[in-house]
Amino acid sequence: MSRLYSRSSSPARSISSRSSWTGEPNKNGQKHKQHFTVKALDEDTAIRSLIFVVNQEHIKPVISLHFNCHSYGVVSLPVSLRHLYKSMTTPSLQIYRERRYPLEIDTDTDIDTVLENHDCSDTENMLADQRTRGPPSPPVPTLNEINRGDIPIIHDCDDNLLIKTINDLIQVVKRLREELESQRRETQSLRDILERCDFCRPGVQCYDTVEGFQCGSCPNGYSGDGRHCKPRGGCDLNPCHHGVQCVDTQEAPYYRCGACPQGSTGNGTNCHDLDEPCDPRCQCTNLNPGYRCDPCPVGFTGSSGVEGVGLEQASRNRQRCYDIDECADGRNGGCASNSVCHNTEGSFYCGSCRSGYVGNQTTGCHNAPGLCPDGTRCDPNAECIRVARERYTCKCKVGWAGDGRTCGPDIDLDGWPDYDLGCQDPRCRKVRPE
Q1: Secondary structure (DSSP) of 296-339
Q2: Reported pTM
Q3: What integer pLDDT is reported at residue 4 of this predicted model?
Q4: Are 335 and 350 in contact (CB under 8 A)?
């Protein structure tokens, strides 16, 4: 015969008991769980002992329940533990508990011994109770047993005295009810404290193991076994950058780092090389200690090279390179005359001929016949006449007549062409209009 029992002296928050049996049969490899609930238990009853009895020789698959030394009958199972155990490839039976109650498993022991170990005084009565399904009814006091010192005995039938006594009794019951409620709250509070009690230092993880509780590691900045943690030197973890002095302090983060080495910048914990002194267009080389900046590239003017050590010198002697405008050298950047020179950062390039000129950078840019500086196109036998600062018009040369854009021979020099030129202007006609 095998028996499983759990004992606790704390009042139960929810006394409904649930046992979860877990096995792994050979057939499908799935775990089998069985839960059962005892609804007859009072919600406010304290759990002193809770015993589950499994009789392996019994034909029916049942489990007997004993609560606080009283039998509460049996609970049927769909399959016996013996059958379930034999069907496992690797036999294993797991028992779970939801709270920190003492848990014991007792095998090959009779129920008398188990009940005696749980301070059940009348073992024979307990065995007789196994045939019942619920707890014994509380004893009903007889008339002779009612003899309380706080309630006076009444020997007459005085109505006023009876009313006064009843009122006093009501007040006493009210006070008792208030005291009971206060005690219930205090007991509940103590129970919560006990259930949530951790033996580890606040902030340290507590693990519940078979051997008992185990504490995790102490928080950052502390050393110890988890139960007792004390501040340690912050510099023990080498938080500062290599080569930076570290000083222990009494306040978080319990250390202070010195200044970064020369040639680098940062907060002491993290330091990085000081690359900023050089112009972005120049190559910067880290030295030990210090730095070196290469000269400004072609097309820029400025520093021919900088070397230094430390942040102060780097801030005071920042290297700067400035673009050279090659097109403003008085020679149009070396481009052909009357052509466009385009300046770029660090360089330049030559464009096309200016307006009124034709050619390229190889042959040069020259005046175009009949093309005025503002782009006005004239007849090859006409001239460009400026009528405003940036405005030109066309006029036929001597011996030619027309509107300037189109000119024809004028042998008699009367200002009119010798034949119609076919343009819209009146000056293009052969005969002067009347």
Answers
A1: PPTTEEE-S-EEE-SHHHHHHT---EEE--GGGSSSGGGPPTTE
A2: 0.29
A3: 45
A4: yes
CA distance 306 to 318: 9
Across all residues in the chain, what is the average pLDDT?
76
Please name the helix (run of DSSP H) or strand (run of DSSP E) that holds residue 264, with its range, or none.
strand 264-266
pLDDT on residue 407: 93
pLDDT beyond 90 at 360: no
Cα dihedral 268→271→274→280 (10° resolution): -130
| Residue bearing tokens 């928080």 | 219
Beta-carbon count within 10 A of 231 CB: 15
Contact 303, 294 (CB under 8 A): no
Residue with tokens 């006064």: 164
What's the number of CA atoms in the CB half-sphere (13 Å) around residue 339? 23
**Distance from chain centroid for Cα 418:** 95
Go through the chain and tell me how many residues it has. Answer: 434
Cβ contact 399:405 at 8 Å: no
- Mean pLDDT of the region 314-331: 87
Nearest-angstrom CA–CA distance, 423 and 406? 8
Tell me the sheet residues that pair with 153: none
Q: What Cα–Cα distance (Å) separates residue 415 from each residue in 172, 181, 377, 393, 429?
A: 143, 131, 21, 17, 10
Please give the helix or strand (H or E) that residue 212 lies within, else none. Answer: strand 212-215
Cβ–Cβ < 8 Å for 254, 231: yes
| pLDDT band for position 193 (cuts 50, 70, 90) | low
**Residue 396 burial (CB count, 10 A):** 23
Residue 99 has pLDDT above 80, yes or no: no
CB atoms within 10 A of CB 41: 21
CA distance 431 to 25: 126
CB 105 within 8 A of CB 95: yes
Q: Determine which of 74-78, 291-295, 377-381 has the lowest per-residue pLDDT on average.
A: 74-78
- Give the DSSP H or E segment for 393: strand 391-396
